[in-house]
Amino acid sequence: MPTENELREQLAACTRIFAMQGMIGLFGHVSVYQPETKRVLITPGMGSDKGGLRPEDMVPTDLDGKPLDGKTGPPVEWPIHTALHRARADALAVAHLHTPHATLFAIAKREFCPVTLQGAIFSDGVPLYPEAQLITNPQRGEALRKVIGDKRAALLRGHGIVVVGQNLQEVLYAALVLEDDTKKTLQAATLGEVGTMTAEECRAFGAEIALERRAQRAWNYFRSLEARWDRQPGTGRSELFP
Ligand SMILES: [Zn+2]
After folding, report:
1. Which of 62, 84, 113, 236 could in theory staple to 91 by disulfide, Cβ–Cβ 3.0 to 4.6 A?
2. How far is the CA of 154 from the centre of ligand 1 (A)?
3. Per-residue pLDDT band at 13 (split at 50, 70, 90)
4. CATH of domain 4-227
5. How far is the CA of 44 from the centre of ligand 1 (A)?
6. What pLDDT does 232 receive?
7. 97 alpha carbon to ligand 1 midpoint, in Å?
8. CA of 20 to the centre of ligand 1 (A)
9. From ligand 1's centre to the CA of 5, what distance in Å?
10. With DSSP H G I counted as helix, E B as strand and the rest as coil, what are the percentages for the chain, rounded to 5?
């Protein structure tokens, strides 16, 4: 079981990597949950520079969003995180992002289907939370939880995405894959009809790979890149969104 200090360090690193990749900026937040202590650690809200977050910047709360010992409160959409942490034993880490490409699927009336082998982790689909609103109270958090069910991610209409995982490594990997698959879908569509992966192809690929190992390798790779990142804006980070 990781200690709180280890989780703070991982959460800061994960968020800096999202910033480097242009997947988080003015908006968006990431959290991790410790079931043994029932403490949520979440990144600070709108206005904080996600590309420079340190372990001590993380905001600890309980499952009702109450700040535990920080000076600042959590981001206003904290119920996204607590609803999922509370209900799902496999949702120990949660990211809410406004990524450039996946968010387009939350706008266009088009269902997401995996188009690459990596995208097979989303073969169960990525459901749409239909209300165009911020998730700022527990009722809306619960409604989102029902929409997402036991899936790995959801789209929020006119807004962004939510990705869950067993740990931050898995959330990082899954969010990177979702963003990449949505980007490739859009790019491939300019060439003509898009060929999507069948459920059987997804199952076959899923049976051949170990997600945990892939997620850990991706984590090691991006941590290495992040360590020598020059802090200049990544793709999209200089824009208002994400
Ligand atoms: Zn949002």
Report:
1. 84
2. 12
3. very high
4. 3.40.225.10
5. 13
6. 80
7. 7
8. 19
9. 26
10. 40, 15, 45
Domain boundaries, the chain: 4-227
Helix (H) or strand (E) run with residue 213 in it: helix 211-227
Q: How far is the CA of 159 from the centre of ligand 1 (A)?
A: 6
Burial class (CB in 10 A: 0-12, 13-18, 19+), 136: middle
Q: DSSP class of residue 26?
A: S
- Mean pLDDT across the stretch 1-8? 95
Calculate how far, in angstroms, residue 178's C-alpha sits from the geometric centre of ligand 1.
Answer: 17
Long-range contacts, stretch 141-144, CB < 8 angstroms, 24+ apart: 141/79, 141/80, 141/82, 141/83, 141/84, 142/83, 144/79, 144/80, 144/83, 144/84
pLDDT digits (tens, 9 = 90+) for 167-216: 999 999 999 999 999 999 999 999 999 999 999 999 999 889 899 999 99
